[in-house]
Amino acid sequence: MQTEGDKTFLAVLGGDPLYMPAMPTGERVELGDGVRLLAPVIPRSKIVAVGKNYAAHAAEMGGEVPASPLLFFKPNTAVIGPDDPIVLPDFSDEISYEAELAVVIGKVCKEVPEEHAASYVLGYTVANDVTARDAQRTDGQWARAKGFDGSCPLGPWIDTDLDPEDVGVMSRLNGETKQDGRTRDLVFDVPFLVSYISQAMTLLPGDVILTGTPAGVGLMDHGDRVECEVEGLGVLANPVLRRN
Amino acid sequence: MQTEGDKTFLAVLGGDPLYMPAMPTGERVELGDGVRLLAPVIPRSKIVAVGKNYAAHAAEMGGEVPASPLLFFKPNTAVIGPDDPIVLPDFSDEISYEAELAVVIGKVCKEVPEEHAASYVLGYTVANDVTARDAQRTDGQWARAKGFDGSCPLGPWIDTDLDPEDVGVMSRLNGETKQDGRTRDLVFDVPFLVSYISQAMTLLPGDVILTGTPAGVGLMDHGDRVECEVEGLGVLANPVLRRN
Questions:
Q1: Does residue B5 register a pLDDT over 90?
Q2: N or C: which end of chain B has fewer CB within 10 A?
């Protein structure tokens, strides 16, 4: 992604940047109405997400910050891309947005010390950890509440240069700001999370870590438009639909 | 798999039986010391597992049977095959075996009614839903406790003819029987689970459902050998190792 004045260009790459160095073809495409972005990655293995990783969000959910990262999985069938509709599932009447910084893993990663974690990261993107609050309360485990089809919008692209230490994480519903946090308030930061998760399980290239959401979550309904943003990274926007 | 007297033969297939009809090449291999079986499937997407799905096991865990299936995920990086070692993770001192009937999905499956569920099943295999009890108690969500590397032995093969309604589900530790249940005691049976899960999320060919474990779970330690068996399906055996 390159900007010139008010225009944004996408640089077209050859090969698979997950498995070889990025190889620009020289071709550039202007980002505009004629260009449709897809989810920048569909994990071959897993999305590992972190709950209650901002103190103010843990408080608004009626809980405290956990002593160690609260990990859960979202399946790759939950991933949708920019502008794809979030289709509200029939089993829930309470679907919430959760804007998050997402980490894309670049190399096979197992038992990595915190100080080397950054070298296993390909880059960053924006995630919406869409959650069915009613099912989350009743189910105990969150597989259905946070794993239904469409519950993991990712995009708009993977930024390989972002410094994740102190960037804004925001969401807007129909243009109104709902969440406005900063990653410096993460209870467990990116290097700690990569290291901690890799102690238990191997992270593969293309696996994604969702780092948790700041305070300000709320419900979405049919006809809404939700935007999640990470400062310097871009905006992930999705319309919200109910079929029935 | 074919038996003649006390010999067992594997029929070699061509192509990918997940995406086309099984195509026997005519070649047969005798199962013996020279043959090493691998995990019969590595899901491209997910393993969906069901907690507390036998009343006697829910009781031994100090809980009741849930009103709806208690779903959680195991990642494909947790899968190992027959005879692969279960390496006990450093973060836990309490690792348990859980023998289970595993369902292998054969077709893309979304919002399938219970009465059509069977046609989406490719076959069945045996699973060990290996669990770190201490992390399960402390973590809240079970991603680490049930998702670490090696926590999902699968095998010895996929049986496409099994009727799952009333078969024995057993485990043995160092030859001693520990679990001895029957699938007729499943709280939520296979057709219900396939239908219920598919209401929330798309199941892909090769996805696996673990149907829950009967009573009798217990801990394993370095040097143990654990065997899980489903009646008529075969034995999934794994040695247990601790590295340090």
A1: no
A2: C
What are the distances in angstroms from CA B238 to CA A84, A200, B81, B174, B225? 44, 19, 8, 10, 6
Segment A176-202 shows an average pLDDT of 98
Determine, for residues A201 and B77 on separate chains, whether the beta-carbon distance falls below 8 Å: yes
Of A77, A139, A201, the CB nearest to B202: A77
Q: How far apart are CA A89 and CA A97, in angstroms?
A: 14
Average pLDDT over residues B182-210: 98
Residues B1 and B72 in one domain: no
Look over chain A and give the mean of its residue pLDDT values, rounded to a whole number.
Answer: 95
Same domain, B58 and B92: yes
Q: Which residues contact A95 (CB under 8 A, 6 or more apart)?
A: A86, A88, A89, A130, A131, A132, A133, A219, A220, A240
Provide the mean pLDDT of chain B. Answer: 95
Output the domain CATH number for residue A124. Answer: 3.90.850.10
Q: At B192, which helix (H) or strand (E)?
A: helix B190-200
Task: Give the range of the structural domain holding residue B180, as residue numbers without chain letter.
Answer: 37-241
Q: Do A148 and B90 touch (CB under 8 A)?
A: no
Contact state of A201 with B72 under an 8 Å Cβ cutoff: no
pLDDT of residue B20: 81
Partner residue facing B75 (CB), from A73, A89, A143: A73
Same domain, residue pair B183 and B196: yes
How confident is the model over A98-106, as a mean pLDDT? 97
Chain B residues close to A149, C-beta within 8 Å: 110, 200-202
Taking the CA of residue A81 and the nearest CA in chain B, the distance in Å comes to: 17
Which H/E stretch holds residue A48? strand A47-51
Option in A45, A90, A138 nearest B75 (CB): A45
Q: Are A73 and B184 in contact (CB under 8 A)?
A: no
Residues B127, B57 within the same domain: yes
The alpha carbon of residue B42 is apart from the nearest alpha carbon of chain A, in Å, by: 10
Does B1 score more than 80 pLDDT?
no
* Domains contained in chain B, number: 2
* 8 Å CB contact of B141 and A72: yes
Burial class (CB in 10 A: 0-12, 13-18, 19+), A143: buried
Q: Are residues B11 and B57 in the same domain?
A: no
In tens, the pLDDT along B35-80 reads 889 999 999 999 999 999 999 999 999 888 999 999 999 999 999 9
C-beta atoms of A66 and B149 within 8 A: no
Size of interface A-B (CB pairs under 8 A): 103
In this predicted complex, what is the ipTM? 0.95
Q: Which residues of A touch B147 (CB under 8 A)?
A: 71, 73, 200-201
Nearest CA in chain A to B89: A200
